[in-house]
């Protein structure tokens, strides 16, 4: 049920080490005004819906289906929010959940740790975040990573994210780090809007003065074209890796975080344990014909890319079957949660689908 696509031996070794261990789930929430560009993301039908996607997802991850949620899950063109997958697993396995607000338009409606970050401006401007904020969020990530690791015993961290428009900031960061990621990232659209993303990224890097110049300082790169989740997650993963396993739970966005970790650790001389860190996602991301996740992971070098082999082809729900047509794909640590269910509880395809469908059933009755 878990396939390792890159750095196979290292990935298999990580799985052996953490089989049967109890995970902790941390989800870093952030926002970039890049999400407001028309058509950039399918995670919410309108620009206004997309403003509240992370807040709605956080509320659902924490509470499950409610009669009157303060923020209902946003309408999508097709498919169902990936938070349904994550919630089904954390609920069934009683995984502790920590939500971190790295920079949202307004605070979540459920308990979340406020890291004192800010919303990122649209990356086209080339000045998305203040450098002071970036340094602050890195530090907060390091501090909270250490705290989480202390609570974990021999377990591992599932580190998820919710940033609408985040695959575009991921492309910007990967490009700025010198990785030829254009045309390889994923998106929430069935067919990735590569040309639109690339135009946005080019404008941002040009305005920041980083176009065709390798960026020496990764923190300046995040300040120019990044989002608040990336730097927070990087700090958290660096700190946790020193003592425990880390599964960066996401697709393209977490590959960008992994590349960022490598750059920060090198430039700022921070100790971390690369062997403890893997990227865990869904089959829909890993095998997305509209991007090239596997090649991208191979280019970043040394990162094991893992994916749950979960399929919704036989699901009785149309909004789950939509995943097989390329809608939604991943988010809120969905793939990582499924990997944890296989790894920790030895769940198979049937058990996973039953848990997810039972939650969809409850949700549709609210």
Number of DSSP-assigned strands: 8
- Return the string of H and E elements: EHEHHHEEHEHHHHEHEHHEHHH
Poorly predicted parts: none
Q: Class by helix and strand content? A: alpha/beta
Task: Based on the model shown, name its key terms.
eight-stranded mixed sheet; 8 strands; 45% helix; alpha/beta; 366 residues; Rossmann fold; globular
Secondary-structure topology with pairs:
Elements lengths: L1 E3 L3 H11 L4 E8 L16 H5 L1 H11 L19 H11 L3 E7 L9 E2 L16 H20 L5 E7 L3 H11 L17 H15 L9 H8 L2 H14 L3 E5 L2 H16 L9 E6 H4 L6 H8 L4 E4 L9 H4 L12 H12 L3 H16 L2
Helix pairs in contact: 3-4, 4-14, 4-15, 5-8, 5-9, 6-7, 6-8, 6-10, 9-10, 10-12
What would you say this structure looks like, in words?
The chain has 366 residues and is an alpha/beta fold. Helices cover 45% and strands 11% of the residues. Helix 10 (252-267) links the parallel strand 6 (245-249) and strand 7 (277-282). The model has no long low-confidence stretch (mean pLDDT 97).
